[in-house]
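General statements about sequence and structure are easier to judge against a single worked case. Part of our work consisted of pairing the sequence of a single chain with a tokenised description of its backbone. The amino acid sequence and the backbone structure tokens for this protein are reproduced below.

***
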Amino acid sequence: MSAPQKFKLIFFVPPSALQACKTAIFTAGAGRYPGPGNYTECAFTSKGVGQFRPGDAARPNIGEVGKLEEVEELRVETLCVGKDVTVKAVEALKKAHPYEEPAYEVYKLEDF
């Protein structure tokens, strides 16, 4: 029997929405490490500055249409074991995130 696929979910979020987004993805099953330690809610968070310019049809949570905006954001990285967990975590993130279009990435991981 082969081990389940592992994915890394990375997303960017304003500090005010960090806890809601982490709660949502962890409830969906993200952040669990397989093995005897039974670790849950595992993530790494780092600070940075994001920038964006909302287009004419945008309804930005932060900033104004047409104006370049720079905001403090947090980058969150976590493990998802199984494609089903990854899909559920991304769906939960999109529901919990305050941005009109949340920025996120998913990478398939390899075991060596």
